Amino acid sequence: MITAAFVYEFLSIHPYQDGNGRLSRLLTLLLLMKQDYRFIQYVSFENMIEKRKEAYYMALIECQKNRYKENERIDSWIMFFLECLIGLSHRLAAKYEIYSRLKTVINKRQQSVLEYINDHKTAQVGEIASQLKSYSRNTLKKDLAFLVKEGLLLKTGEGRGVHYHAIESVSS
Asked: Which of 72, 88, 134, 138 is the most buried (most CB within 10 A)?
């Protein structure tokens, strides 16, 4: 897998004093998108690495111990990388299944609110009301309260400072 090999090389070279891991994950997303792994935009590779940080470092260390030697092998890293991709595809399938079930549980207006917030990651009532003009602000507030209660959105702040956030991964 070309992307996994590229990321391994980037991390092994370690070109910057700080931020190599974050930049490598951003490059991973870019390269995977360029190779038509379009599903990657709907799940968090960053989150997957964070949850498997110990295995991430162990795979890198295992491969890098023979760096620049004839017996350098990156199979541990490739396997780790592919396991992450498989895990992400399973997460997306779970999200899709839950979202499909929710379509029958929540109404069209609530779906519109959820989609808007998922697209923007965070929003306030005013922003939502300005985009979904056919619904009253009070109705949207009730929908937001319902979606928070059902665990489909996260609410932070109070009063005019309330923000509603998309839940990154329903299956995490």
From this structure: 88
In the block, tokens 């990657």 appear at: 40
Same domain, 19 and 46: yes
pTM of the model: 0.60
The helix/strand/coil state of 162 is coil
Per-residue pLDDT tens digits for 136-151: 999 999 999 999 988 8
Q: Are residues 33 and 67 in the same domain?
A: yes
Distance, in Å, from the CA atom of 126 to the CA atom of 97, rounded to the nearest integer, reads 30
Burial 80-101 (b: 16+ CB within 10 A, else e): bbeebbebbeebbeebeeebee
